[in-house]
Amino acid sequence: MGNALVICVLLTRKKVTTMTDVCLLNLAISDLLFVVPLPFQAHYASEEWIFGNAVCKIMAGIYYIGFYSSIFFITLMSIDRYIAIVHAVYAMRVRTATCGIIISLLLWMTAGLAAIPNMAFTQEVEIEQSLKCVPKYLPGQETWRFFTQFEVNILGLLIPLSILIYCYSHILKNLQSCKNRNKIKAIKLIFIIVVIFFLFWAPFNIVLFLDSLQNLHIINNCETSQRLALALQLTESISFIHCCLNPVIYAFAGEMFKAHLKKIFQTCIRRISSSNSANHSHSLPTQVLGYSDSDRVL
């Protein structure tokens, strides 16, 4: 709902005119894309996979494209803010909508390429007389298993978190050296962004890394394997919540965005009120005369 509101505001009220607008729009789209497979996964969790091999691969592709693109655009927004605050003069040349669109296209292509291995190996298989939609690696393809898992760790946490820490640490230094009424608010928002990103994505990546160690037979215990499988499902579910929080953190925190959102709600309320008034006016003659059809003299 929040991501849909972000798209609605940007396309109808605010317009996409800056790098920040482009980032917000693409982040909202990627978050919506990320949750598209959720209804399929919900049914799959309660029963078995019934949607066929093609849908299995498509949902895997959509999931990972949404996953990578969401994190890429969060990282891009951090770089955008870093340039805007730390390199204000240079920012005038690069923080344009055109530049944002070009970079966004490159990031979508990168997300698509990063999702290809997961999409290629995910398929419908029968395990213990039940259909599953899972990655399947044939003998000799174990290298790809480790590649896909470490790819998530590196592209999904290590690189983005490193960039976030670098950008926001320099932003904090810059804010401390200038006297601004909104400085404390900006510092709090920066702290929230980094902490929330870490809290929601670190557990999933840590469990995924431990699962990789298990596949390498470094961890080789049946009870531990069962716990890791459960932990992987739990932490992955928690990471989905981050997509719902993104609009609150990045869009709704902005004063201009909240103003445009308020205008949309006011317009909707006015339309509803005018519609109710019109319906009320149509019923006035009968109410004024004080009789219904059954009271008329024939």
Give a written overview of the molecule.
With 298 residues, the protein is mostly helical. It has a single domain (2-256), classed as Rhopdopsin 7-helix transmembrane proteins (Up-down Bundle), CATH 1.20.1070.10. Helices cover 80% and strands 4% of the residues. The chain has helices at 2-14, 19-34, 38-46, 52-86, 88-94, 97-121, 142-176, 183-215, 222-251, 255-289; strands at residues 122-127, 130-135. A two-stranded antiparallel ribbon has the order 1-2. Helix 1 runs antiparallel to helix 2 (19-34), helix 4 (52-86) crosses helix 5 and helix 8 (183-215) runs antiparallel to helix 9 (222-251). It is globular. The chain starts with a helix and ends in a 9-residue tail after the last helix.
Q: How are the SSEs placed, and which strands pair?
A:
Blueprint: H1 2-14, H2 19-34, H3 38-46, H4 52-86, H5 88-94, H6 97-121, E1 122-127, E2 130-135, H7 142-176, H8 183-215, H9 222-251, H10 255-289
Antiparallel strand pairs: 1-2
Subcellular location: Cell membrane
Family: Belongs to the G-protein coupled receptor 1 family.
Membrane topology: Multi-pass membrane protein
